Amino acid sequence: MTETVELRNKPELKIILNKREFTIVDAAEPKNSGTYLYGNLTNVRLNAEQTDWFVPTISIITSFFAGGGSKVGNFKNKANLQIEMHNQKLKIWLVDVDFKKAEKISLILSKKK
Fold this sequence. Notes:
Strand content: 35-45%
Number of helices: 2
Distance between the termini: 18 Å
Radius of gyration: 18 Å
Shape: elongated
Largest sheet: 4 strands, antiparallel
Strand order of the largest sheet: 1-2-3-4
């Protein structure tokens, strides 16, 4: 039984779930592409996009003491899927993807480990 979940069309990002392994096709980060055994999975973590308040806060404090009037923007940590295996770690950036599909993949891989 094979199931293909297409997370993004351009650049292509899809995960193909097979009986004993899964295949990642990541055109944005080709080093993530490959076929991996479920048995090698140790951890799967899905991280949603969130604002990082630490950097803007430090910038404001530094700007205040330096007397500058520099603008401080929002710093966001991009959504990603981290897949850890016995011998390597993958970080798949989830830019312009259907996050519900990413959640589905995360749950399936977590159950297979």
